[in-house]
């Protein structure tokens, strides 16, 4: 158990809908990262937050947004869903925002768009 | 641009065989970090090891060992006396240090199947 929690575990929804994925980092970790794992794209970095502020953006679509709250949990919002958004979404956390520290991953949320 | 290549898509071995998973990386940064993660059938990503670019010492942890060679931009992972529980997808990842941000760039993964 990495200490990172993600809810829900599974999510099934329809095209055009909007969903919110939630992540709680390990105790004491200030940095949260979101990754998408799909068969087409592999594991891709989406976005990073550190202590409430956005620090880095990767291949995140405009339909997707995220935020980190004062209690350090984070939410990833996916809207106008398309079939291609079906993937495993991981949240990871680390103590720092940079440097020599590893990221610990949550169990993931499997999103299926029908 | 940073890139990680895991040329081996799938490897099948019989229990107790040794197996090496290859990882080749590309980066222009002088400071960078290399990682290996394991993804068992249950789906979670399990951290295995982190190496920074200034530390070329090989590391051994039980049946696992890692060989980091800057000259060939490789960070290979060897499992000695493989076991069925080692069956998983293994990912090599790179994080560049000079920008100050720590996104991980993953390879495409190597699926290891260990049969009894």
Q: Outline the biggest β-sheet of chain B.
A: 6 strands, mixed
Q: Which band does the percent of strand residues of chain B land in?
A: over 45%
Our Rg estimate of chain A from Cα atoms comes to: 13 Å
Element order, helices and strands of chain A? EEEEEEEEEEE
Compute the number of helices of chain B.
0
What's the number of helices of chain A?
Answer: 0
Please mark out the parts of chain B with pLDDT under 50 across 5 or more consecutive residues, or reply none.
none
Structural class of chain A: mainly beta
Mean pLDDT of chain A: 93
Q: Could you explain the architecture of this structure?
A:
The complex is a heterodimer of chains A (114) and B (116). By secondary structure, chain A is an all-beta fold. Chain A is built from no helices and 11 strands. In chain A, a hairpin with a 5-residue loop joins strand 7 and strand 8. In chain B, the strands form 3 sheets. In chain B, strands 2, 5, 6, 10, 11 and 12 form a 6-stranded mixed beta sheet that branches. Chain B has a 4-stranded antiparallel beta sheet with strand order 3-9-8-7, with no helix packed on it. Chain B has a two-stranded antiparallel sheet with strand order 1-4. In chain B, strand 5 and strand 6 form a beta hairpin. With 116 residues, chain B is mainly beta. The radius of gyration of chain B is 14 Å and the shape is globular. Helix content of chain B is 0%, strand content 53%. Chain B contains no helices and 12 strands. The chains are: A mainly beta (114), B mainly beta (116). The interface between A and B is medium-sized, with 30 and 22 residues.
């Amino acid at each position: 158990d990495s200490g990172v929690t993600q809810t829900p575990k599974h999510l099934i929804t329809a095209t055009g809908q909007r969903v919110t994925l939630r992540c709680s980092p390990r105790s004491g970790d200030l940095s949260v990262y979101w990754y998408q794992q799909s068969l087409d794209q592999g594991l891709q970095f989406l976005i990073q937050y550190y202590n409430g502020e956005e620090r880095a953006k990767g291949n995140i679509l405009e339909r997707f947004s995220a935020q980190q709250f004062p209690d350090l949990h984070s939410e990833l919002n996916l809207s106008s869903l398309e079939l291609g958004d079906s993937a495993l979404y991981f949240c990871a956390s680390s103590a720092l925002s940079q440097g020599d520290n590893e990221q610990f991953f949550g169990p993931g949320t499997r999103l299926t768009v029908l | 641009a940073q890139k990680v290549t895991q040329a081996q898509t799938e490897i099948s071995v019989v229990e107790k065989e040794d197996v090496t998973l290859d990882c080749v990386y590309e980066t222009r940064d002088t400071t960078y970090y290399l990682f290996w993660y394991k993804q068992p059938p249950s789906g979670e990503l399990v951290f295995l090891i982190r190496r920074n670019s200034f530390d070329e010492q090989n590391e051994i942890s039980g049946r696992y060992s890692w060989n980091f060679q800057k000259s060939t931009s490789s960070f290979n992972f060897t499992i000695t006396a493989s076991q069925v529980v080692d069956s998983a997808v293994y990912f090599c990842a790179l994080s560049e240090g000079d920008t100050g941000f720590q996104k991980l760039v993953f390879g495409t993964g190597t699926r290891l199947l260990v049969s009894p």
